[in-house]
Amino acid sequence: MEELDVSDGFDVHDYRHGLKLLKQDRGTMTLENREGFACPACGEPFERLFVSERRTNSFGNPGGPFCLARTDESLLVLTH
């Protein structure tokens, strides 16, 4: 299982073959993990990935466990 590499930032295009874009707006995107990529925080497979370049974000109840990963450019929220 390949883990998302966020050690030098995160480029969604590196993982486009296994992530399906569900929603995108200015500064954010939500993707579905269709390849079984592993979470960079806990090493377990995740279901959805939210990527934000915004300084602030609000979230509803994710319905289960989640992990956070931070790069210089973005915040990644991974739901399990």
From TrEMBL:
Keywords from the UniProt entry: Cell projection, Cilium, Flagellum
InterPro entries cross-referenced by the UniProt entry: DUF7385 (IPR055809)
Any Pfam family the entry gives: DUF7385
Origin superkingdom: Archaea
Name of this protein: Flagella cluster protein
Organism: Haloarcula salinisoli
Lineage, opening ranks: Archaea, Methanobacteriati, Methanobacteriota, Stenosarchaea group, Halobacteria
